[in-house]
Amino acid sequence: MQPETARPASAPRPERPNLTADAGGSWRVMVGSFGNRENAERLAATLRRQGYPVGLEVSGELTRVWVGPYSSQARARTIANTLGQYQPQVARMAASTPAAPTPEPQTEPAPSASRFLQVGAFRNAQSAQSVVEAVRQAGYPVVLVEEGGLVKVRVGPLDDASAAAAALRARGLEVLEVR
Predict the structure, then answer these.
(1) Maximum distance among all alpha carbons in the chain?
(2) Are 64 and 89 in contact (CB under 8 A)?
(3) Using the 8-state DSSP alphabet, how is residue 37 labeled?
(4) b or e along 128-154 (b: 16 or more beta carbons within 10 Å of the residue's beta carbon)?
């Protein structure tokens, strides 16, 4: 009979946090920015398959990939810790004014603006481009959210959703307020 050898105890795996987005949250985990939209969409698809709530945001020539939103910086940091290979940045999206087409993420706390408008839902991001351009021309920030197999075009975050809704309706867009 051979003596039993002690096996090293395997380190317990840290429990994966709940990845679900928080309605009305303004904290996001910025995962990447791409000059080639297809690369952004490829990363978004990878993250979505892993269970992350993914958004795309057009900013000039770049397409940003973000995860969230989350209601607190601490929660966003917890999620960011699961995405270490991408060197994620936690940012709070600042309130915007119609003069600023796409705000830069702010790392400082900013006034809370949790209202978004949805102006379309499409099978893919390319189909959404004409609506994205119309919103950008109106001077509002555009966020693409992939949800339920659709690419949803959202406007915000906004302090005054009713003024933005009126301006977008005047451009012929159908507007729905979402939270």
Answers:
(1) 86
(2) no
(3) H
(4) beebbebbbebebbbbbbbeeeebbbb
- In angstroms, how far is CA 133 from the centroid of its own chain? 18
CB 62 within 8 A of CB 30: no
Residue 145 carries which side chain, given as an amino acid letter? Answer: V
Q: What is the C-alpha separation between 41 and 45, in angstroms, rounded?
A: 6
- Does residue 37 have a pLDDT over 80? yes
Torsion angle of C-alpha atoms 125, 131, 134, 135, degrees rounded to 10:
-80
H helix or E strand, kind and range, residue 43? helix 37-49
Within a 10 A sphere around the Cβ of 20, how many other Cβ atoms?
12
> What is the pLDDT at residue 74?
92
Q: Cβ contacts of residue 16 below 8 Å, gap of 6+?
A: 82
The model's pTM is 0.51
End-to-end CA distance of the chain: 67
Average pLDDT for residues 107-120, to the nearest whole number? 61
| Residue 26: strand, helix, or coil | coil
* DSSP assignments along 87-147, one per residue: --EEEEPPPB-TT-SSPPPBSS------EEEEEEEESSHHHHHHHHHHHHHTT--EEEEEE
